[in-house]
Design goal:
This protein is of the alpha/beta class. It is built from seven helices and nine strands.
């Protein structure tokens, strides 16, 4: 459906397209979190549900992740904001929504705060306190000689840590989101703390709403996946009138 996606560095971005209803021009783009990719089970489940509701869906892996080209060591929020721009460039003619999980949620806030092509924003366990997250999870590790969560394919880089420190917290960016915005967060999330969602919601406008899922962890395991899907799909149909 889409031509090959290549970012500004010439790196191919792996993507999977899910058709919606015939003739639809509504498209939800899905972005993943750090050390992940487009094929996380809950992202696939969401894409399939969105497609079944008549809305097309495009899930992709940021450069350096999954089957996309690029080096994982160069994967930062700032670079992924530009990757998302590449995807939006390829979606001309569609009414676009973006749903980002975890670090992909931070990407969404930064992109939507300055890119009017995103007409609906969804933050799934979205990261807001970027510097705080990096320090909590990786601050005791040595960049260049250790791995994120002991994953050999995910080396911790100084580039990543520097970018997270420079970003600090995205709370004030919440004031710049003017499109319909849904935040979904589990109250048992120990990776990106629920406080991230409540902090940014506190400065957001009436266009934003938060759904807290009782007992849900960071990746919406088990019964939390259908609960997350049920929070997202009807909301998206309502705000788009589809």
């Amino acid at each position: 459906m889409f031509e090959e996606l290549r970012n500004a560095h010439g790196e191919r971005l792996d993507a999977t397209f899910h058709f919606g209803a015939e003739g639809t021009k509504d498209l939800l783009v899905l972005g993943h979190g750090v050390t992940a990719n487009k094929d996380r089970p809950f992202l696939v489940a969401l894409a399939e549900a969105v497609s079944a509701a008549g809305i097309a869906c495009l899930r992709f892996s940021f450069a350096g992740n999954g089957e996309s080209e690029g080096r994982f060591e160069e994967s930062t929020v700032s670079k992924e904001v530009e990757d998302l721009g590449t995807v939006l460039d390829a979606c001309e003619g569609w009414r676009i929504g973006y749903a980002g999980h975890s670090m992909g949620g931070a990407v969404g806030v930064l992109r939507a705060s300055r890119d009017p092509r995103i007409t609906a924003l969804i933050s799934l366990a979205g990261m807001v306190d970027c510097h705080g997250f990096a320090q909590r999870k990786f601050g005791a590790q040595e960049p260049g000689s250790s791995f994120m969560w002991d994953k050999p394919d995910c080396p911790l880089s100084q580039t990543y840590m520097d970018d997270m420190a420079a970003l600090g917290t995205l709370v004030e960016k919440g004031r710049d989101i003017t499109v319909p915005w849904l935040l979904v967060h589990g109250d048992a999330d120990t990776v990106v703390l629920p406080q991230d969602a409540t902090d940014i919601l506190a400065v957001a406008g009436d266009n934003a709403e938060l759904v807290t899922l009782a007992g849900a962890d960071h990746v919406f395991s088990d019964a939390a996946t259908p609960q997350m899907v049920e929070a997202v799909v009807p909301w998206l149909r309502r705000v788009w009138g589809s």
